[in-house]
């Protein structure tokens, strides 16, 4: 009898090693992405493709589905606060940081696209950009897109960060910064963490105050856009500007 112990012996035909059961699923999902692109994939499947790299030794399908169930959509998963992402079983600080790197890359890509042409030429692109930056923030942010005379982006700056339902805005500070950047036009943007983008009376009053201060200086206020999880509102489109 050989020197092998019983526990070292394997039944005839059994392979020396086996890939985890989910490896075949990963290959099929990758091939489907290559053949059909992202539009053919559900949110959780696209998330799985990302998680393959972040969690190489884990079945990522349950993790992806749990994330979508918890936060609602692919975008909301990437935009969710880190401490809430870490509450999902299977995700640790390293994987969460990697998700935030992917979000930052997507935001940078959107911003660079916005810079390439006059902002007003692609309103849908502007809204997509603003949603990627702000829709899922837990606190209100007030940001300004400063434009030149050709309506190209000079700068995109967060001017104030407030609470869950209020951000202090000072019209003269907005104009002071506009003059520093030699901006000739502005688009104001802020988010409603509640998810409802409907403007408040304070939002309308603040917008009109900025417009009144800007007009004598030759600075045009194109719009004030409010971003929420459920959509967006343009004050100009609602004739409130």
Q: What does this protein look like?
A:
This protein is an alpha+beta fold. The chain folds into two domains: 21-107; 134-234, 3-Layer(aba) Sandwich (Cytidine Deaminase, domain 2). It contains nine helices and five strands. It has helices at 23-36, 43-54, 60-71, 74-79, 82-85, 93-115, 123-134, 171-180, 201-214; strands spanning 141-147, 153-161, 185-191, 220-228, 231-234. It has a five-stranded mixed sheet, with helices on both faces. Helix 2 crosses helix 3 (60-71) and helix 6 runs antiparallel to helix 7 (123-134). The longest helix is centred in the middle third of the chain and has 23 residues, at 93-115.
Name of the CATH class of the largest domain:
Alpha Beta
Order of helices and strands: HHHHHHHEEHEHEE
Fraction of residues in H or I helices: 40-55%
What's the assembly state of these chains?
A: single chain
Low-confidence stretches: 4-17
| Alpha-beta classification | alpha+beta
Second CATH tier, the architecture of the largest domain = 3-Layer(aba) Sandwich
Query: For the record, what is the CATH homologous superfamily label of the largest domain?
Result: Cytidine Deaminase, domain 2
Mean pLDDT: 85
- Order of strands across the biggest sheet? 2-1-3-4-5
Number of structurally distinct domains: 2
Query: What fraction of residues sit in β-strands?
Result: 5-15%
Question: How would you summarize what this structure contains?
Answer:
This protein has helices spanning 23-36, 43-54, 60-71, 74-79, 82-85, 93-115, 123-134, 171-180, 201-214; strands at residues 141-147, 153-161, 185-191, 220-228, 231-234.
């Amino acid at each position: 009898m050989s020197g092998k112990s019983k526990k070292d012996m394997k039944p005839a035909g059994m392979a020396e090693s086996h890939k985890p059961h989910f490896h075949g699923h990963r290959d099929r999902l990758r091939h489907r992405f290559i053949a059909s692109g992202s539009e053919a994939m559900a949110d959780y499947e696209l998330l799985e493709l990302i998680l393959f790299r972040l969690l190489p030794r884990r079945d990522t399908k349950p993790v992806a589905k749990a994330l979508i169930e918890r936060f609602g959509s692919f975008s909301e998963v990437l935009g969710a606060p880190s401490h809430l992402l870490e509450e999902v079983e299977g995700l640790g600080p390293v994987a969460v940081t990697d998700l935030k790197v992917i979000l930052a890359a997507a935001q940078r890509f959107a911003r660079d696209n916005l810079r390439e042409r006059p902002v007003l030429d692609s309103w849908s692109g502007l809204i997509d950009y603003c949603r990627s930056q702000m829709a899922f923030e837990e606190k209100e942010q007030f940001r300004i897109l400063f434009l030149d005379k050709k309506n190209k982006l000079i700068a995109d700056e967060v001017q104030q960060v407030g609470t869950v339902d209020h951000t202090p805005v000072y019209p003269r500070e907005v104009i002071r910064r506009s003059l520093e950047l030699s901006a000739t036009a502005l688009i104001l943007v802020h988010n409603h963490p509640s998810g409802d983008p409907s403007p408040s009376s304070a939002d309308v009053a603040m917008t009109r105050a900025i417009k009144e201060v800007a007009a004598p200086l030759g600075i045009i206020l194109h719009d004030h856009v409010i971003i929420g999880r459920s959509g967006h509102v343009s004050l100009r489109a609602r004739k409130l500007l």
